[in-house]
Amino acid sequence: MGTVAHVLAVNPVPARSQMGSSLGFHIILACFGVAFAAVTMTAEWIGIRRGDAAALLLARRWSKVMAVLVAVGAVSGTVLSYEMGLLWPGLMGRFGSAIGVPFSLEGIFFFLEAIFVGVYLYGWQRLPPWLHWWSGMPIVVAGILGAVSVVAANSWMNTPAGYALSDGKITSVDPVSVFFNDSTPYETAHMVLAAYMVTGFLVAGVYAVGLLRGRRDRYHRLGFAIPFTIAGIAAPLQVMMGDIIARYIAHSQPVKFAAMEYVPTTGRDIPEWLGGLLINGHVYFGASVPAFDSILVGFNPHTVVIGWDSVPPDQRPPLPILIHLSFDLMVGLGFFLFALAAWQGWWWWFHRRLLLTPWFLVPSALGGVAAVTAMEAGWVVTEVGRQPWIVYRVLLVGDAVTPSGGVPVTLGVILVLYAILTAVSIGIPMIMSRRWRRGAAAEEEAEQVPYGPPPAGASLAGSPAPPAAPRAPSGGPEAG
Amino acid sequence: MNPSPEAIAVATILIVVIAAYALFGGADFGGGIWDLLAGSAERGAAPRELIDESITPVWEANHVWLVFILVLTWTAFPPAFAAIMTALFVPLSVSALGIVLRGAGFAFRHTAHRLQIQQLTGATFAAASLITPYFMGTVVGAITTGQVPVHPAGNVLAAWTSPTAILTGFLFVAACAYISAIYLVLEARQRGHENLVRYFSVRATAAGVLTGALAGGTFAELSNSAPYVFHRLTGIALPLVAVSIAAGIAVLGMLWLRWHHVLFLRATAAIAVAAVVFGWGLAQYPYLFPTSVSLVAGSAPTPSLDAEFVVAGLAVLLVAPGFAVLYFLQQRRMLTAAESDADLRLAAQLALPLPGQPAAASASAENRMTTALVLVMLAIRAVRDVFSPPGHQRRR
Predict the structure, then answer these.
(1) Does A447 contact B154 at a Cβ distance shorter than 8 Å?
(2) CA B371, B373, B375, B376: dihedral to nearest 10 degrees?
(3) Which one of B29, B53, B93, B118 makes the best mutation probe of the A interface by having the most chain A beta carbons within 10 Å?
(4) How many domains are contained in chain A?
(5) Residue A475: which pLDDT band, with cuts at 50, 70 and 90?
(6) Is A457 within the bounds of a domain?
(7) Is the same domain home to A354 and A232?
(8) What are phi and psi of A374, to 5 degrees?
C-alpha cells in the first residue's frame, strides 16, 4: 500500500505515534477523572438519603478504585503536557501563546480537582456525611470544566482563531476567541458526554458480569443500575450530538469529512458508504446508500458535498481507510450503546424493574469496552483526519515536530510502560473486588498498610499512639 | 528596550509557582527519598508509614504546580519553552518518566497485598522520587549557564552534563530531602511519635548541611560557568542569598535546640528554599536564557500575558481557599486512608434484612426514574434548539 509507505517515510511518525498512544491511554483515565466522581456521588447520595448500606458500600469501594485511576490519570496527563513541548516544539514555539490560554484555565480546574479528590477520597472516615458528599461536588464541576478547557485547545487546532500573524510570528492574541473557537461547543460537548458514557458503561459492565454469575443481590443491582442510568442518559444525547457534529465538520473541515465518508470528488447525490475498503479509487466490500450522505449533510439529495479533490494531494489526510472505518466503528458502537440504553429504559418504563436477562446483560457487560473503542476511534478520526496539518491550514505536522533524535526510544519506553500500566490499572480493581468478595477482616486491614510486614508488626513499633488507632466512633456516613 | 510590565509580572508569577512546587512538590519527592533510605521492611515500617500518611491525601494537588509551570512557560514564553524542550529532550523525558513511575508506584502500593509486590511498587515510587528532581535540577542548571541555544537543532548533551548542571541536580535532590525531613519532624511531633521526631531531626540536619555544601559548591561553580548570574547573585540578589543562608542556619539551630515550633520551623525552612528560587529568578533578570534570550525577545503578545494574569487571579480566588481547606483538614488529621472497619460494618449490614419499607423505596425510585426520563427528553429538546439552526441552514 502506497499510502502506508508514504506515512512511514515521513519524519513525524514516531512523534505522532507517541502522542497518539499517550493520548489514547490517558483519555480513558481522564474519563474517570471527569465522570467517576458523579457516579460515586450518586451512589453516596442514595446511600445517605435512604440509609442504604449497599449504595454506601458501593460508593466507598468506588472511591478506592477512583484513588488509583485518578492518580495514574494525573501523571499520564502530566506526560502529555511534557510531550506538547518535547514532541512539538515547532507548535509551542510559534503558537504556545494562543493554545496556552485554554491549557492555563485547565490548570486551574486540574488544581481544584486534585485538591478535592484529596478531601473526598480520604475524608470518608471523619467528615460528616453531607459535608463529605458536598466535598465531591467541586470534582464534578472542575472535571467537566477541565475537560472543556483541554478539548477547547484541541478544537483550536481544528479551527484556529483569535490570533494575528506577521512573518510567521504571533503578534496579537484574543484569548476569548481562542477559547471559544468555532469547534469548541461541538467538540467539548461530545467529549464530556463520551466521558460519562465510558465511565458509566465500564462500571456497569463490571456489575453486569457479577449479575450474570448469579450475584443478584441489591448491591450488584445498584452497582449496575446507577452507572448504567448515567451512561444511558448520555447515550441518546451523544448520538444526536454526533449527527450535528458530522454536519458541522462537513462545513468547517471538508477534507476531513471527505475522508470520513469516502467522498473523492465534490458533487451532489453523494452516497453514504458503510464499511468498505478504498483501493485505487474504488470502494470494495462496502454497502452504499445512494445520495444518503448528501441527505445527512443538507437534508436534501442534491446537497453538494466537498470531496478531497478540493485540495492538492499533499494536503489530504493519509489513510482514508483508517479514518472511514474508525468513523463507522464509532457511529456503529454509539448506536449499539444507545440501543442498550433504550432497551433498559423501555423495560423500566413499562415494568418498573430492572431488565436482567442474559440477553441484555451479556451485551451490557461488553458496553464499557464498546464505549472505550468508540471514543478511541473518534480520536483517530479527528486527529488523523486533520493530517497533514497540526494546526488546520496553518501549520504542518512536519514543521512542528522536534528535531531531537530520541523519539523512537521514548516511543518504545512509553509503549512498554503504558502496556504495563494498563494491565495494572485493570488488574488492581479486579484484585480488589476478589478481596472484597472474600471479605476477610484481616485482608482489608492489611490493605491499609504501605508495605509493612504482616499487620501486627506494621503499626509504629514502640510509639505510644499508632496513627490508625484513634478512629472517630461517629461521623461516618453510615450514621446518616 | 526594557521588558514590559506584563512580562515582568508574569515572570514573577512563574518564579512564585516554581517556588511553590519546590516547597510542596519538592517535599513529596523528599518523602520518597527518605522512604528509599528507610532500610529493611522491619526497620523502615514506622518512618514509611508516617511518610505515607503525610503525603497520600495531598501529593496530587502538590503535583499540579508542575503542570502550571509547564503551561505558564509555554503560554508566556513560547520560544524559550520550545528551545528548552528541544535542547534538554533527554533530561526532561527522564523526569517525565520518573513522574509516571512515581505516581503509579505510589497508587499501586496502597492496593498491593503481598510484601514483595509492596516492596516492588514502593521501590519504584522511591527510586523515581530520587531520579525526577535530579534531572529537573540539571534542566535548571543548563538554563542558568546559558547553554540552551536559541534555535537548538536537537538534544544538547553538554548543556545538562556540565559540572554546574550536575551540581544543581544534586542540590535539588538534597533540598527535597531537607525540606521533607523538616515537615516530617513536625508531622511526627503532631502525632506524638518521639522516636520519629528524633529520627527525622537527625536526617533533616544532615540533609541541611549537605544542601548548604552543595549550594556553596554550585555557587562557586557559577563564577566561571555563568558569570552574568554570578555577578547578579553577588550584587543585587545578595540580600536574598543572605536571607537563605541565615534561614538555613536558623533551622539547624532550632533542630539542635529541639525547638519544634510548627509555624516557625516550617516557615524558616520554606524561606531558606524559596529565597534561593527568588534569588535565581532575580539573578537571571532580564534574561530567560542568560545572556542570549531576554524577556523582551522571548515573551508572548501582551493579551496572552494578561490572560495568564487573569488565570493567576482565578488561582488565588479558587485554588488558594481549596488548598487552605485541604491542608487544614490534613493537619487536623481528618483525611485518613484507613476505613476498612466501616466497610466491613456496611458489608455486614447488607447481610441483614433491610430495615424500613421496601415498597416505599421502590416507589420513590420510580418517581426518580420518571423524572430522569423527563429530564432527558427536555435535554434532547434543549440541545436540538441550541445546535440545529446552523445545521439546517448552512448549505454547500
Answers:
(1) no
(2) 170
(3) B93
(4) 2
(5) very low
(6) no
(7) yes
(8) -60, -40
